[in-house]
Structures are given as structure tokens and as C-alpha cells.
Design brief:
Blueprint: E1 9-14, H1 22-38, E2 40-45, H2 47-50, H3 57-73, E3 82-85, H4 91-100, H5 105-109, H6 112-120, H7 127-141, E4 147-149, H8 155-172, E5 180-182, H9 217-225, H10 242-255, H11 259-265, H12 271-297, H13 300-329
Parallel strand pairs: 1-2, 2-3, 4-5
Helix pairs in contact: 3-12, 4-7, 4-13, 7-8, 9-12, 10-12
Bound molecules: tryptophan.
Length: about 325
């Protein structure tokens, strides 16, 4: 295939920090499978990013494997896409060193996530936490990715990756593709079931606030039964009806129906019945993910085959880019 016919490359990393929420799934992850049609996709579990915060090794290893299985269960096909674990491809860290040398201390000091995390982990402000965005730039640039799906919290990091690419290109000649961000729309709109003005979050203290994609049906039903609504009685999408709006949005995502169709369907019905119906719809919607996840976790040998193959393919692709970058910089050839 010639360069002009080449499909665009989409790349994203996810930290192995536990099960996704319904909000993550709807907003980002469920789209990943669909993107495989249009793009060459590269997805990885960002385990190297994760160790910027101290981890218990055994549970960290377990979470990395679970997260990998979960991405496959959510529709990433390890044959069509490259799906791997970051630490299995050494080229990210290699390029990260190089890119660190075209990144300014001042730029990294301005990263709001660094400032937040440094405040939160004041006893462990390690250098990795500081250079984290450089590794992220390397993740992206080492595949010359065109498009990077990320959450809003990663916008500043992507902007830095773009600046690094441009700067490298100016200094050493055209080398890196300057990546574009791809921001989820709907996910940001899925709110907590308990405080529907707040985003649904993985780390909510209230166990009824967040639906996780591996929750079983009973758990899902319990959470929806307890979902906060309002003192009105009408099921319609309207200003000030945050709880109902959220439930309508969720119902619409889970069933593919529009909000207007959902309003019509529930016209004249009570909130109690509506909440049960939303719970049922979400349970049905997530059931295939849960089943596939269980199947994969039962077959570790297959999972390992997938991530090994993914790492090898990732290595080959990224190695071409790294070798070229090394030449541009003036490192001496040795092969
Ligand atoms: N930093 C991202 C996050 O915390 C994860 C990540 C690492 C990533 N490398 C990436 C995302 C490269 C997109 C591209 O969510």
C-alpha cells in the first residue's frame, strides 16, 4: 500500500487502574472496536505510566492483566489491532529519553496533572511523575500516530506531545507526525447516579453512584433502584432535572434509542418503573462484555499469546521510527 492509501493510525493507552465505569465505556471504550474499521489501531495498557504512583506488585500485575482482558472484552480485536502492554515494548522508554532532551523543564512544570499529583502524593514526587508526559509523547510519536482518543484530563499532555513533535521536526528535519486529539463526547455526560450534577467516577466514595462494566445484574439493578431523581413526576429531559436527564441519557446509550423515543416510551409511567427499565437495559447492554471477560480470564494462555504477539508487532513498527530518529539526531549506526 502506498503512503497516500495508508489508513490513519489511531493510538491510545489506558492505565491499569481497575474496572471501567459505564461512563468510560460509553464515552470512549465502546467506540474503540468500531474505530478498527476506519483506522489502524494501536492500544496498550500503560503500566509504565502507572508506576509513577507506588503500587503493590502483586495486585499491580493482576490489574494489568485484568485491564488487558477488559480491553479485548470491550471489542478490541487483537488480530486487527495491535493490543499490548507498554512495558513489553522497550522502544517507548528509548524514545522517551530522546524526547526528554527536546522538552523544557518549564513546560513540564506547567502540567496541571503533575501539580495535582505532586500535591496528592507529597511524600513521593518522583522524577517519573514529572517526566510522565514525555513518555506519553513517546508512546504516540514512536508509531507516528495520527489520532489519539483521550479524556479531557489528557488534553494538556497531548498538546505537549504536539509541541515536542514540531520542535523535533524543526531541529532535525521532518520526522514525526503531529498527532490530533479525539475527544469523547457522550461519556462526559454520564453522571453519578447519586449526585447527577457530578461526572460518574471510578473513585466515588458512594458505592451506588457508579456502575462498573463488570457489575452483575443484581448490583446494576440495586444501583438504578437507588438512583436519585427529583420531586417532579414526569420523565422528560429538561433543565433542572439532572437525575432524570442522566437516566434518559444512559437509557438512550444502552438501547440506541433517541431521548425523544425514550420520553415517549415512558410517558405516564412512574419513576420506579423507569429506573427498573434503565437498570434492565444497562444489564443487557453490558452482559456480553461480562461474559467475554470471564471467558478470557479463564484462558490466560490465550491472553498471553495475544499480548506477546501485540508486543512483537508494536516493536517492529516503532523500531522503524526509533531507528530513523536516532539517525536524525546523529547517533552512530551499529547494525
Ligand atoms: N496518560 C493517559 C491517562 O492517564 C494514558 C496514556 C499513556 C495515553 N500513554 C498514552 C493515552 C498515549 C493516549 C496516548 O489516561
Amino acid at each position: 500500500m502506498s503512503e497516500t492509501e495508508r489508513k490513519k493510525v489511531i493510538l491510545s493507552g489506558i492505565q491499569p487502574t481497575g474496572v471501567f465505569t459505564l461512563g468510560n465505556y460509553v464515552g470512549a471504550i465502546r467506540n474503540w472496536g468500531a474505530l478498527q474499521e476506519e483506522f489502524d489501531c494501536i492500544y496498550f495498557i500503560a503500566d509504565q505510566h502507572a508506576i509513577t504512583v507506588r503500587k503493590d506488585p502483586a495486585s499491580f500485575r493482576k490489574q494489568t492483566i485484568e485491564s488487558y482482558a477488559l480491553t479485548l472484552a470491550c471489542g478490541i480485536d487483537p488480530k486487527r489491532s495491535i493490543a499490548f502492554i507498554q512495558s513489553h515494548n522497550p522502544n517507548h522508554a528509548q524514545l522517551s529519553w530522546v524526547l526528554g532532551c527536546v522538552t523544557q523543564f518549564g513546560e513540564l512544570s506547567r502540567m496541571t496533572q503533575f501539580k495535582d499529583k505532586a500535591a496528592k502524593h507529597a511524600d513521593d514526587i518522583n522524577a517519573g511523575l514529572f517526566t510522565y508526559p514525555v513518555l506519553m509523547a513517546a508512546d504516540i510519536l514512536t508509531y507516528n500516530a495520527d489520532v489519539v482518543p483521550i479524556g479531557d484530563d489528557q488534553r494538556q499532555h497531548l498538546e505537549l506531545a504536539r509541541n515536542i513533535a514540531v520542535r523535533f521536526n524543526q531541529r532535525y528535519g521532518e520526522m514525526f507526525t503531529v498527532p490530533e486529539g479525539y475527544y469523547p463526547k457522550v461519556g462526559a455526560r454520564i453522571k453519578s447516579l447519586q449526585e447527577p450534577t457530578k461526572k460518574m467516577s471510578k473513585s466515588d466514595d458512594n458505592p451506588n453512584a457508579t456502575v462498573f462494566i463488570l457489575d452483575d445484574k443484581d448490583t446494576i439493578m440495586r444501583k438504578f433502584k437507588r438512583a436519585v431523581t427529583d420531586s417532579d413526576t414526569e420523565i422528560r429531559f429538561a433543565e433542572g432535572k439532572d437525575g432524570i436527564n442522566n437516566l434518559l441519557t444512559i437509557y438512550s446509550c444502552a438501547t440506541g434509542k433517541t431521548i425523544a423515543e425514550a420520553e415517549k416510551e415512558f410517558a405516564g409511567k412512574g419513576y420506579g418503573d423507569f429506573k427498573l427499565a434503565v437498570g434492565e437495559a444497562v444489564a443487557d447492554y453490558l452482559e456480553p462484555v461480562r461474559t467475554e471477560y470471564a471467558r478470557l480470564m479463564d484462558d490466560k494462555a490465550y491472553l498471553k499469546e495475544c499480548w506477546t504477539d501485540g508486543a512483537q508487532r508494536a516493536f517492529r513498527l516503532s523500531n522503524k521510527v526509533l531507528t530513523k530518529a536516532y539517525r536524525k539526531i546523529g547517533f552512530v549506526d551499529y547494525r
